[in-house]
Amino acid sequence: MNNRYDVVIAGAGPAGGQCARDLVARGYDVVVLETESEDEFPRQSNKSTAGTFPSMMASFGIPDDVVMQYTDNVVLESPTDHYVQEQPGAVLEFADFKRYLVEDGRDGGAEYLFDARVTAPIMENGEIVGVRYNGDEEVYGDVVIDATGPSAPLAKKLDVVDLKRENHAIGIEYEFEGIDIDRPGFADLSDAMMLRLDHEIAPGGYSWVFHTGEDTAKVGLCYLQNEHHSRFAKDGHTVDDYLEHWLETDPRFANATRLEGKQHRGSAHLQLPERMHTDRFLAIGDTVPTVDPLWGEGINKCMQSGRVAAVAVDSCLKHGLEPTAENLEVYDTLWHRDVAPNQRKRLLMTQLLYLAPNERYDQFMNDLHRLDEETLAAANNGNILALAKLFDIDDAPLLARFAKQHLKLGQFL
């Protein structure tokens, strides 16, 4: 292995993998360092629900053979109601998907080093010039990219990101067989991705069922560990306890059994990013706080951030420019334009959604039924007029509580 490259990437997830693919396609020497061993990659504890849409598959050239199930609908559930919208999607086999990114990157010329835990930046004259891994091993690059997710060993030491605990979302998921996919009294989840808003199951968050074929599905939940969660949470309950409660009380799971080795955990942050780059350095993927609303489609966002990072690096190196913070500024511009547009509005939407009580979630389903899909799409993109159509006079106390919280934190628009 060489110890000098054009670009060093820490992390072989969707963001790091896609960034490597794009950079080698442009002719750069790239090495990707991954903590996990190649034989175990990716571990069951480091996965995603892997729901995505055809646009992502087409944009990044992802093959059909990493798809577990193509879906036709997105279903939203409240405690007593549901809403169904036609929306083609795909549930990926996340392990196959991540391994494909590695194989395709290698075919293009990227070098992958597994069992390589990145621990610290190597600094010269106040700038990062490489990374240290596995204790005393070193590798150098013109540009270094942190794609390690919330652990962010490089971005934190460079003071590029400040990931706050109250914005930390945790999740757990199992894969099951024997699920009653079309249970009377519930929405038909055949060929569907379902998200449920119900504080009894996921206080301050949401739960999901993603159909993966016949009577199998991915079932999980996540929530932010903040005051919204605390307001609805049960004392002493963990994320595992809430999932067990759902499995025990929902009749759709009465005869379901867990598939061996199919337990997944994950985390991300839901906050506004402050910085994403500095001299010779970029933070991408979940290393940058996630700011998406409920249907975040994290895989696509990570892939997009990896792609715009590759564009930013190329804009410097192909012209022989020094990769200073100023010359890498295009990364921030493209990230805000393509990865997370209207980020502040979308984050406020998410926080307001988690603040609502269960009764309001039931009413929300009625609101969805009466509005057209164009209005819903506009609301999801942060359009103020469209958002206003989702509220009425009875929401005044909820909006007042929301405004009070954000004025107190100095975050309100």
TrEMBL record:
What GO annotations for molecular function exist for this entry? FAD binding
Taxonomically, which superkingdom? Archaea
Ranges of residues in domain FAD-binding = 5-306
List the Pfam families: FAD_binding_3
Q: Which residues cross the membrane?
A: none
Protein's recorded name: NAD(P)/FAD-dependent oxidoreductase
